[in-house]
Amino acid sequence: MLKTLCAVATIVFLSTKAEAQQGQELWHGLRVGMTKEEVRTILPKNEIDLLPDCRASISIRYESNRLVSVMLGEKWLLSKNNCISPMTTSLAERYGKASRSVIESPSTSPLTRGSYEQYVWTKAGILIDYRSQLGGRSWSLTYRLAPESTPSSKIEGL
Q1: DSSP string of 78-122?
Q2: What is the DSSP letter of 155?
Q3: How far is the C-alpha of 34 from the C-alpha of 77, rounded, in Å?
Q4: Are the C-beta atoms of residues 126 and 20 closer than 8 Å to each other?
Q5: Please, what is the average pLDDT of the chain?
Q6: Do 118 and 100 touch, CB atoms closer than 8 A?
Q7: d(CA 110, CA 15)
Q8: What does the pLDDT look like over 20-71, one tens digit per residue?
Q9: For residue 92, which of 84, 104, 103 has the smallest C-alpha distance?
Q10: Exposure letters 12-39 (e unless 16+ CB within 10 A, then b)
């Protein structure tokens, strides 16, 4: 009987936690669990000017037609790709001190191959992962649920 009650309590807790994560805002009104149609209503274009000299492309990831992450990256317009230094400063001001590391990209493309600085913040259950190429122009900024709360299954792009 006690084992059954514990199992039921665990299922209720996990269900409540998953339901609470649905609707959690990741970035600019985009919330976990939104459908592709709901995302298109809020975000009709897949690029944005983040700063005066920084244009970004936006990539949305879905799992079972539900939003799970938002990734911003460089839009290869040389006149609009002064992003790395201002983004690093802006993110540190917004989220505080980050966990920082240097990682190597497994990319075979000469444009994105090399070493990257990785900054990671976790705020209110959201993982913010910013990577900037050392000595280059490539960068990415991803918002998703923190790993311990992200369900695993097939992920599709927009």
Answers
A1: GGGB--HHHHHHHHHHHH-S-EEEEEEE---STTT-EEEEEEEEE
A2: -
A3: 30
A4: no
A5: 80
A6: yes
A7: 45
A8: 467 899 999 999 999 999 999 999 999 998 888 888 999 999 999 999 999 9
A9: 84
A10: eeeeeeeeebeeeebbeebbbbbeeeeb
Q: Residue holding tokens 């244009």? A: 55
Q: Average pLDDT, stretch 110-128?
A: 89
**Joined tokens for residue 133:** 């190429």
Cα angle 32, 54, 61; round to 5: 25
Nearest to 100 by CA among 86, 118, 116, 82: 118
Per-residue tokens: 124: 């209110």
Q: Which pTM does this prediction carry?
A: 0.76
Domain spans of the chain, in order of start: 2-157
**Dist CA 144 CA 33 (whole Å):** 11
d(CA 63, CA 86) in angstroms, rounded, equals 32
Rounded distance between C-alpha atoms, residue 146 and residue 130, angstroms:
14
DSSP type of residue 32: T
| Those residues with Cβ within 8 angstroms of residue 85's Cβ, 6 or more apart along the chain or in another chain | none
Tokens coding 40? 């298109």
